[in-house]
Amino acid sequence: MLRSTISSLVPRATSVARHMSNAAKLTTVEINDVTGIATLTMNRPPVNGLNLELLTDLNNSIQEIEDNKSRGLILTSSNPTIFSAGLDILEMYKPDKERLKAFWTTLQDVWLALYGSAVPTAAAINGHSPAGGCLLATSCEYRVMLPKFTIGLNETKLGIVAPKWFMSSFLSVLPRRVAERALNQGRMFTTDEALRNGLIDEVANSKEEALAKCAEFIGSFSKVNPLARSLTKQQLRAAELSELENERAQDLEKFIFFVNQPAVQKGLGIYLENLKKKSKN
Ligand SMILES: CC/C=C\C/C=C\CCC/C=C/CC(=O)SCCNC(=O)CCNC(=O)[C@H](O)C(C)(C)COP(=O)(O)OP(=O)(O)OC[C@H]1O[C@@H](n2cnc3c(N)ncnc32)[C@H](O)[C@@H]1OP(=O)(O)O
């Protein structure tokens, strides 16, 4: 059933050992022969932490799906319990200056490509989805999540601030007062809470069911003119997209300044240490 499986082995050189996951591509794209829908899978063990390499592969895969004229894009994870742990905190903790710039710029690219994608998009959230994971999911048009996981923008819990465009994605899904309170609290929603509040659209009992529900959503546009649909979506999303496009340099500057504050570095260090302690217990 798969028209193509794009999963090339692209050797990569990087000078920073801690960021080297492996030499293979960190995303795969599978296009269903019958439906023409592309499934984009993140595959960066252990937790799909969004580092520069995973973001680069995500960006290239989204581009590829747009160029292939796929009928839709479903974003998911190869990890059975984690959709994405969000940004790889190691990219922000004691960062290398040039790499930090490339990291944030590529994250901006991914958001612009996914939130602004011309094709219908859906997320099959088959695991936990904090922060950057939630950003990816809320950039899609539809979300199906498996039970007993969590999703949300928890940045304030790390002592950091979600940028405006993270909030735009969140606000495109949640009512303003729910979004505002959740952002201020750094709230992580359980699957049930996410469904009740509209942060996700459906619950599925398995990844296969989630993928099928996402495909059904994408299929709901089969009788709609694709150009009319994509121009409608892009018009609705134009204000948020232009806001970042017009302020990319300032957004990058703000991020670099903020991340390099001693208090932020200290907070990230403590958060990482606690994560490591927890994983050893
Ligand atoms: C005005 C403002 C302008 C600009 C703003 C500037 C800057 C701020 C913007 C920054 C935005 C950030 C958004 C983010 O995405 S930050 C990341 C937030 N992510 C999290 O908080 C998730 C943390 N992780 C977890 O909660 C759990 O790991 C998880 C539920 C995902 C999985 O749990 P599980 O028990 O299955 O695994 P663990 O044992 O916890 O983890 C396994 C190993 O992975 C490491 N890990 C986990 N998450 C991360 C991460 N996000 N980054 C790096 N590393 C991570 C964890 O430490 C374990 O490592 P080892 O001990 O095995 O080495």
TrEMBL record:
It comes from the Eukaryota. SUPFAM superfamilies: ClpP/crotonase. GO terms for biological process: fatty acid beta-oxidation. One of its GO terms (molecular function) is delta(3)-delta(2)-enoyl-CoA isomerase activity. CDD domains: crotonase-like. Pfam families: ECH_1. Transmembrane segments: none annotated. InterPro entries: ClpP/crotonase-like_dom_sf, Enoyl-CoA_hydra/iso. Pathway: Lipid metabolism; fatty acid beta-oxidation. It is found in: Mitochondrion matrix. Key enzyme of fatty acid beta-oxidation. Able to isomerize both 3-cis (3Z) and 3-trans (3E) double bonds into the 2-trans (2E) form in a range of enoyl-CoA species, with a preference for (3Z)-enoyl-CoAs over (3E)-enoyl-CoAs. The catalytic efficiency of this enzyme is not affected by the fatty acyl chain length. This is Enoyl-CoA delta isomerase 1, mitochondrial. It comes from Drosophila busckii (Fruit fly).
